[in-house]
User: What shape does this take?
Amino acid sequence: MEELLQDVVNVLVSIVEACGAAVIIIGAVWSFARFVWVGLRRRDTSAFVPVRLTLGRFLALGLEFQLAGDVLRTAVAPSFRELGQLAAVAAIRTVLNYFLGKEIAEERRQVAEEAERVQRGGGSTSASRPARPA
Assistant: This one.
């Protein structure tokens, strides 16, 4: 019975980790396409902030899937070695997610400030931004 449960969990771990990898790959491809598109249309660095935010969200979600796979892997009769590895991996991924979340929040704040400044009529702080066609 335990072997059957272990086999089922191994299949589930593979599926969850594949989902995490797919989220990261899709996010990277999507963000790269947006990066190229934005780079061809606008030259100022503030135009790339939304692209970074999108990639950051994909990375954070992908890391959550990967962590879920690690938790599943140790759910059935874990050894002390597996628990130690899970703790180390969880700590690393948690720290990565924390700093990624902080960066996303900071960039969102900057985007909101820029939008507010434009809405008030203050315009952009970047003089190099070309005029947008109507």
Observations:
- The two ends are 67 Å apart (CA to CA).
- The chain has three helices and no strands.
